[in-house]
Automatic annotation (TrEMBL), chain A:
Entry's localization field: Cell membrane
Transmembrane segments: 34-63, 100-119, 131-152, 179-203, 224-243, 286-308
UniProt protein name: Carbohydrate ABC transporter permease
PANTHER family: ABC TRANSPORTER PERMEASE PROTEIN, ABC TRANSPORTER PERMEASE PROTEIN YESP-RELATED
Chain residue ranges for the region called Disordered: 1-29
Native organism taxonomy: Bacteria, Bacillati, Actinomycetota, Actinomycetes, Kitasatosporales
A Pfam entry, by short name: BPD_transp_1
Family, as annotated: Belongs to the binding-protein-dependent transport system permease family.
Gene3D superfamilies: MetI-like
Domain ABC transmembrane type-1 stretches: 94-307
UniProt-listed InterPro entries: ABC_transporter_permease (IPR051393), MetI-like (IPR000515), MetI-like_sf (IPR035906)
SUPFAM superfamilies found in the cross-reference section: MalF N-terminal region-like, MetI-like
Lineage top rank: taxon: Bacteria
From TrEMBL, chain B:
UniProt xrefs under PROSITE patterns: PROKAR_LIPOPROTEIN
Record InterPro entries: Bact_solute-bd_prot1, SBP
Signal peptide feature range: 1-27
SUPFAM superfamilies in UniProt: Periplasmic binding protein-like II
Taxonomy, superkingdom: Bacteria
Pfam families, alphabetized: SBP_bac_1
Protein name per its UniProtKB record: ABC transporter substrate-binding protein
Keywords: Signal
Parts forming coiled coils: none
Keyword match Glycoprotein: no
């Protein structure tokens, strides 16, 4: 939001040697920024009341013992101490979430990119296919789809019957610790539509001249993909990667429904947020749950920062020229 | 957006805050508590259970509304786990329903957190208790005062597929199985039919409680402490391990989904030939099971202790914050004591608590209701009184933890003895011992 930043820092900027257009914003523009605030106000009020306020409250609760009924009691770092040193289930949920993120994110992005490449070629019915592949992203977060998933992979489900044709008998996958998380991962991968659409937009931006030049130099399709397409869409790849990793760490609904709300058989699909929810709403330990939420926030922030740092090494912005 | 589950975390806290606000507002605007006045009152009544219970309860509520045109009743029902979470959030947010269904763990929880209204002022006035036996009423007492009313009378039973057992050549012994005979027969059912003889019953602390009583112990002592040791639980789970080895009980993957509901029952899914249950579930078994069901007492090695008790399947309580307590008590009285209401409800919450109503319901009962009545009259003399079967605050967490650890045991992640030690350790923490 450059307009706001400019409006705020107008005073200092006037003296600074900056390009003329920015130093003296025309009058009309200034009036507009006032209007912008008016239009933004629902969002600003919403963000401060509905997000920042509760977040601060949860930060306070993270240092308390709070059972929802009695007033919170200050306990200092005790919640964090218990979490890190005494809670086996906590570390199990961390491990399950890591497995979930490390498997689902790369596979989901690969699927999204693969399908986007196919849909990028001009052919009949592309519009239909795009919508069709995007649909699961809209549906995937809903409880009803997770319930369908449960019956697909459950006992006497379609998947079990299908594997039976090949003589493989696994039984109910959702009720076995070895497979329960896999079904949750499969549900996540199936929703590759959103990153796919973003990849498609990125692919459209790759200049055709580059392909022509590469083809003239004798590069085949595989070479063209790795030497032209992939480097050119790295900014989009970074964007998708960051978004998907954050989403993976916050994933909840699928595991909640497929695991019958308990985190699957023997805690095998107990994602972090699910355990957080259990602590808060089954055990009435809101202080502990808030502490968990803040640890998650900090971890996600660290991972995001690391990703952005590493991006200097592998992300190519067309504007930078060669390096 | 009805299908979406609310995201946990800050949104929920916020929702709770919004509810508090709404709750205060409504509390301020509601009229004083007068049933006689013409002012229309709306009360909320919530419960959990299967479809059959919901249908019967809705019918009774309609009848009540017709008799009391100035009271409108809003009803809500859901499955058990969702019910407890929702109710707790509502109570904490100051938006508690007026009349609520409770069970032994939630009664202990809410009573000790001072969220239930004392019913003593209504007893004998709006709320008649003459027809309800003292031993049943005792289940809803705390510190010598009445905080909840028993919704009925239930006891543990063994429900099995009659035809399957007949084909397998297994008959229920005249005075019930001993555990050893039982194990042999369950393996036999599996060998003959391919279906496990019974659903692995190690997951529910309720059935362990029965076994403890048969061995002269209790799950919780009267001073709200743990009544069993690691060794007891290890012995119990080892007995099940050997049954599992001989395929007498269901495999781990069929056991893990058990939650007491008909939709997740291994018996209803025909993965097993029988199940241990409360007789208040007979109506839902009959309406969901394809086949002919028979009923038997629990296996027991003791001649005097059957492991079955006369328990209230669920209770009713009135929220402390309710501003329509009188109206809620009126509805409660109607549900408990009206003979017509009793007939409609049948045995969906066990047999009616009022003995006169129970007698008339059982006299004209058919189908599943009759099965429940017949079973109860058959085992009447073998039921132990409910006062040694009370669950304290914290028992709700113990119950969930018990099943979770048992999952680890049946999937081989933990031995029976390590699991038992874990349950005892966690239980002591939950009970504040």
């Amino acid at each position: 939001m450059p307009t706001i930043a400019q409006a705020r820092s107008k005073g200092e900027r006037a003296e600074a040697p900056v390009p003329e257009a920015q130093a003296r914003p025309p009058r009309r523009r200034r009036q507009r920024s006032g209007a912008a605030y008016v239009f933004l106000s629902p969002w600003l009020i919403g963000a401060s009341l509905l997000t920042v306020g509760p977040m601060l409250a949860s930060l306070y609760l993270a240092f308390t013992d709070y059972d929802l009924f009695n007033t919170p009691r200050w306990v200092g770092l005790q919640n964090f101490e218990r979490m890190f040193t005494q809670d086996d289930r906590y570390w199990n949920s961390v491990w399950v979430t890591l497995k979930f993120a490390l498997v689902s994110v790369p596979l989901k992005l690969a699927a999204a990119l693969g399908v986007a490449l196919l849909l990028n070629k001009p052919r009949r019915g592309t519009g239909f296919y795009r919508s069709a592949f995007y649909a699961p992203s809209l549906l995937g977060a809903s409880v009803s789809v997770a319930l369908v998933w449960r019956s697909l992979f459950g006992s006497n489900g379609v998947v079990d019957d299908f594997l039976g044709i090949f003589g493989i008998h696994i039984g109910s996958m959702v009720d076995q610790p070895r497979y329960a998380l896999l079904t949750v991962i499969a549900l996540a991968i199936w929703q590759f539509g959103a990153p796919m659409v973003i990849f498609l937009a990125g692919l459209k931006q790759v200049p055709n001249e580059l392909y022509e030049a590469a083809a003239l130099d004798g590069a085949g399709p595989v070479r063209r993909f790795f030497s032209v397409t992939l480097p050119m869409i790295t900014p989009v790849l970074l964007f998708n990667l960051v978004l998907e990793i954050i989403q993976a760490f916050q994933s909840f609904t699928g595991a909640f429904v497929i695991g019958s709300g308990r985190g699957g058989p023997s805690d095998s699909a107990l994602l972090y947020t699910l355990y957080l929810y259990q602590r808060g709403f089954n055990n009435f330990e809101m202080g502990y749950a808030s502490a968990m939420a803040w640890v998650l926030l900090v971890v996600i922030a660290i991972i995001t920062v690391l990703l952005f740092r590493s991006s200097r090494k592998w992300v190519f912005y067309a504007g930078e020229g060669t390096r | 957006m009805t299908g979406r589950i609310p995201r946990p975390g800050r949104w929920s806290v916020l929702a709770a805050a919004a509810f508090t606000l709404a709750g205060t507002l409504t509390a301020c605007s509601s009229s004083p508590d007068e049933v006689g006045s013409d002012a229309k009152q709306t009360i909320r009544f919530v419960w959990w259970g299967n479809e059959d219970r919901a249908a019967a309860t809705e019918k009774v509520v309609k009848r009540f509304e017709k008799e009391h045109p100035n009271i409108k009743v809003q009803t809500e029902f859901s499955g058990y786990p969702a019910y407890v979470q929702k109710l707790t959030t509502q109570i904490a947010g100051g938006n508690a329903p007026d009349l609520l269904q409770l069970d032994r763990p939630t009664f202990g929880e809410y009573q000790q957190k001072r969220q239930l209204a004392e019913l003593t002022p209504y007893v004998g006035k709006t709320l008649k208790t003459d027809g309800i036996s003292d031993s049943l009423l005792a289940g809803g007492e705390a510190d010598g005062k009445q905080f909840a009313m028993p919704a009925g009378l239930t006891t543990q039973l063994f429900v099995y597929d009659k035809d399957l057992y007949e084909k397998a050549g297994v008959t229920v012994p005249e005075d019930g199985w001993t555990w050893k005979q039982f194990a042999t027969d369950m393996a036999k059912v599996q060998a003959e039919s391919g279906r496990a003889g019974t659903t692995d019953f190690g997951w529910a602390i309720d059935w362990f409680e029965s076994w403890l009583h048969q061995n002269g112990k209790q799950l919780y002592t009267s001073d709200r402490k743990l009544g069993f040791t690691e060794d007891d639980l290890e012995q119990y789970w080892s007995m099940l391990a050997s049954m599992r080895q001989k395929k007498g009980v269901t495999a781990a993957e069929d056991t893990t989904k058990m939650d007491g509901s008909a939709q997740n029952s291994a018996l209803v899914a025909k993965e097993s030939g029988s199940e241990i249950a409360y007789d208040s579930s007979v109506t839902s078994y009959v309406s969901t099971y394809q086949g002919k069901l028979g009923y038997a007492p629990l296996p027991s090695d003791s001649k005097t202790e059957s492991g079955m008790a006369a328990l209230p399947p669920v209770y009713y309580g009135i929220a402390k914050t309710s501003s329509h307590k009188e109206a809620a008590a009126l509805l409660l009285n109607f549900i408990l004591n009206d003979s017509e209401a009793g007939k409609v409800l049948g045995t969906t919450r066990g047999t009616p608590p009022n003995s006169e109503v129970a007698a008339s319901v059982c006299a004209s009962a058919t189908g599943a209701d009759k099965e429940t009545c017949d079973f109860q009259s058959k085992v009447k003399d073998r039921l132990s009184p409910s006062d040694t079967w009370l669950w304290p605050s914290g028992s709700s967490a113990v119950k969930t933890d018990f099943q979770r650890v048992y999952d680890d045991v049946i999937f081989g992640k933990s031995s029976a003895s390590a699991g038992a030690a874990k349950v005892v350790e966690n239980a002591k923490q939950s009970l504040g011992q």
